[in-house]
Amino acid sequence: MVELLSPAGEYNSFLGAINAGADAVYLAGNMYGARASAVNFETDELIKAIKYAHLSDRKVYLTVNTLTKNDELEKLYDFLYPFYINGLDGVIVQDIGVFLYIREVFKDLDIHVSTQAAVTSLYGAEFYKNLGAKRIVLARELTLDEIKKITEKGIETECFIHGAMCYSYSGMCLFSSFLGGNSGNRGRCKGPCRQPYKVNGKEAYYLSLSDMNTLEIIDKLIDANIYSFKIEGRLKSPSYSAGVTGIYRKYIDFCLENPGVSPVISKEDSDLLKILYSRTSTGRGYYERVNSKKMITFEKGAYAKVDEESEKKIVEKYIENPVRIKVDFEFEALSQNKAELKAFLHDNHLISSVAQSLQIVQKAEKLPSGEEEIKNQLVKLGNTFFVCEKCDIKIDDGFVPVGLIKSLRREAIEKLEENILLYKNQRKKDCNKFDFDGDFKEIQNFGSCDITDNSDKALKEIGKPDLKEIKSLLDFNVKCSSQKPFKRAFVKKFDQFEFVLNSSFFDSAVVSKEIIENSGFLNTLSHVSKDIYIELPPVLRSLNEEYFKKTINFAKDNKNIKGLYVNQYDALYLIKSMNFDKEILSDQNIYSYNDLSAAFNQNNFDVLTNPAELSLANYPSFEKEHFSVIFYGRAALMITANCVLKNCDRCSKKNQSDKYSFVDLKDRTGTDFKLYAICDDSLCFNVIYNSKATSLHKYYDKLKNLGINKFLFVFTDENIEEMYKITDDLTEVFDSFKNNVGYDYTAYHFKNGIL
Q: Could you report the per-residue pLDDT of 181-228, keeping only the tens digit for each?
C-alpha cells in the first residue's frame, strides 16, 4: 500500500488534489500551521473538506506543526475539537508539548511527527513511535539506504517526493528568525537561503537547493517501503496541487500494477512537471547522495510559470469537474401507498438511506407520473457530492408531485451522507479537556525516556502523563537564587579549551568533535580539575552512528567526563539504550517552548537549554536546577547536510588539517555570518552562526531573580585575545551587574521574542 499525500493551501487546491487522485491531503487551519502565509482554511471550510474526503474514501491530515507558546496551547482544545468530532484523520506535529497534549486529550486521533522534528535515524523513529506516534515524517536529508533501515523495522514513514527543499535540516533553522523575527518554527520563514552569499570572494546562491522531482525513481521509493509519498506545496496554486498529483498518481499506479518494472516517463508529463512552479533546476534530493553541488541552483532561482493552456486544462479536468460519489436509487410510488426513495452507495449497498413521504400517493386524475419525468428530477444532484449511477423506478397509475420527488431526493441524500460519514468515523464525540487552571501552571510529570530492556536496545515504554495526579511546578515569577552562578563554556578549538581550563571565570567546559580528536586532549583530560562535557554532533544518522557510539562509550568509561549534550531525541534514545549513567543535557534544538514540553524534557534531561527564540516573558515554567541559559554566544542559525565549502570547490576533506574550519559567509549587505564546516569520513555538515553573538549581560539581574543560576557561554571562532576581552567584561557583569560590554552583541529574541 502506498499513500499519495498532496498539499492544499486553499479549498480549490484541496478539490484539485482529491480529484487528481490523492489518497490524502494535508492542510492547515487558521492557527498552528507551518505555512502562515498560505490562505489556509476557516473552520467550516475545513469541516467541509473532511466530509468530502471521507465521502470519497480519502483522508485529511491537519498541520499543527509550529512550536507553541503557553497561551496558544490553552487554545488548542477549542481549535481541534470541531475537526476531531467530524472525523479528522490525523495531525502533523513538531512540538513535544503539543504531541503530549493531543495524545492525552484526543486519544484516538493519529499523530504524525512532522519533518520539522528532524527525525534522522531509527532511534528517533522508535522514540516517537513508542511515545505514541502513528507515523514519522522523515528528514528530507536521508538517503534511500538510511530510510530502508527504518522502514524494515515496521515503522510507518512519510517522505517528500516533490517540491521545494530547505537547505537546513527542518526544525533546526533560525536564519529567518534572527534576520527579521520571522521564525520558520512558527510558519513565517522568509527564505533568506534563497539569497546570494559570498564565500572566499565568490558570490552565488550557495544555500538555495534545487526543487525535488523523484518521478524517475518512484519505483525505488516504493521498494524502500515508504508508506506515504508527500508532495510539497501548500503555498502553491490549485493547478500545481492537481497537476503534480495527477502525474504522480499515474506512475505510482503503474509501478504498483507492474512490480519490478521501471516506469518510462513521457515527455509530456516530464515537461508539465517542469513548468508547474519548479525552480530553474530540479533534482532527486538526497535519496541517492549524501550531498552534492549538483543539488544547488547557484544562479538566481526563478519559478517557471505554467502556460495558460496547460493551466486551463488542469483546472477544467480536476477543479471545475470534481469527482462525484456514485449512488444508486430505488424509487417506489404506488397509488394508495407512501412514496419511498432508497439511496445506496454504488459500490457498497450496505451503506444506504431511506426517505418516505408523509402522505399516500393519489391516483392520477389525468396522466400518471412517468418514469422519465421522475428520473429527471431524481438525478439533479448538482450541489451535492453525489452523482446518480443507476435509478430503478417502480410506479403505477399514481401521480407524484415534483415537489415531493425533490423533497425525497434531498432527504435521502442527506441521510446517506450522514450514514457514510458515520460508517467511516466511529470516533467518540467526547474527549478529556485538559484543565489548565487559569495560568496553566499545574502540570504533572510528563513521563521519561526509560529503557527497561536493553537486550535489543528497544525503548519499551515512555511514561505517560496522568492528568488525574496533577502537581504544581515551581512558581515561575519570583524565586531569587542565592546560589553562586554556574558558568559553562562551549568551545570548538583546542586553544579555547585550554583557555577555559585556566580561567577562574568558568566552572566547566563542553568540548566538540574537533577537540576530542586533538592529540593533546587525552593527556589534558587526565589531569583536569574542572568538569568536562562532550557535545555530540548535532545530527545522528546511520552514517555517523558508530562515531556516536564510540563517543558515548568513551564518555561512559572516562571518569573525567561528566556528561553529554545532545541536540535530538534520536541521540537521547541511543544514549539511553547504551545504559549511559552520567548526565544527559539538552542542546538548543531540544525545544522547551511551553510548560508541557518543559515538563517532559525535565524528566529526560538533567539540564535544559533555553529556546533561542523565546523572550524572557515567554519562558515556560521550569525547575531552576533543570534550566540553563545561553548567556553569550553566536546562535546556530542553520545545521546543514550540504557543504558550502564543497560546493564552492574547497572541500576540507582534501586537507586533513582543514577538516574543521570557520569561513566567512557574507550576504548582500556585507553582513558576515560564520560558517563552521565539519568534514570527515563519516558525515559532513555545516553550522551557520549568526553575525553577532547573543549577550544577556543587561538581563543578568532579572535572570538571577527568576532563580536561574546556570549560564552557558558558546565560543565559536573567537581567538584567545578576544576570549580574554569577553571574559573580562563578563566577569564585571557577574561581579557588579555591569551593563556595558566591549564586544558587538544582540539580545534580539530575548528582548522581543517572536510572533
A: 888 898 889 899 999 999 988 999 999 999 999 999 999 999 999 999
C-alpha grid cell for residue 523?
A: 593527556
CA distance 631 to 65: 28
Neighbour-count burial for 735-752, b at 16+ CB within 10 Å, e otherwise: eeeeeebeeebbbbbbee
Cα torsion for 37, 755, 107, 28, to the nearest 10°? Answer: -10
Residue 179 near residue 233 (C-beta atoms within 8 A)? no
The x, y and z cell numbers of residue 388, run together, are: 446518480
Q: Are 675 and 709 in contact (CB under 8 A)?
A: no
Q: Let me know if domain 449-459+483-752 sits in CATH 3.90.1720.
A: no
Start-end ranges of CATH 3.20.20.70 in the chain? 3-165+210-318
Q: Which long-range contacts (CB under 8 A, 24 or more apart) does 401-404 make?
A: 402/377, 404/339, 404/357
Instruction: Copy the grid coordinates of residue 661.
Output: 574550519
Residues 6+ apart with CB under 8 A from 332: 339, 340, 341, 393, 394, 395
**CATH tag, 3-165+210-318:** 3.20.20.70
**Spatial CB neighbours of 211, under 8 Å, sequence gap ≥ 6:** 162, 163, 164, 165, 278, 279, 281, 282, 283
> Residue 73, Cα to own-chain centre: how many angstroms?
17
Question: Residue 7 is placed in which grid cell?
Answer: 498539499
List helix spans (H) across 532-631.
545-557, 569-577, 595-604
pLDDT tens digit string along 634-685? 999 999 999 998 888 766 555 555 678 899 999 999 999 999 998 877 788 9
Q: Are 159 and 114 in contact (CB under 8 A)?
A: no
